[in-house]
User: What shape does this take?
Amino acid sequence: MLGEAMTPADNSKIKLIALAVLIILLIGAGFWYWYQKRAEVTKETSPAAQLFEKVQNPMEKLPETNPFKVQSNPFSADVNPLGNSNPFNAIYKNPFGQ
Assistant: This one.
């Protein structure tokens, strides 16, 4: 069969198979092109994507808080306007104070 000439029936079968493969490839390429275009459109016009761009991250505006950080006493600052009026400050030394 290798050295024999091809009959018209064999030739038409080969053409039919080639045509079927070509049609399948064209359908696959068309589907791939359509899928890529649809993915680009959904990314640009998605309401979720638009909302995500408008909303800011609230975590960026939070102050730094660390419960394990040693904090100084906010009341230890000398805010008393009459602090210098106590005559016994120099006499008595508080053993628990600073």
Q: What stands out?
A: The helical segments are 8-45, 47-54. The radius of gyration is 42 Å. The mean pLDDT is 76. The chain has two helices and no strands.
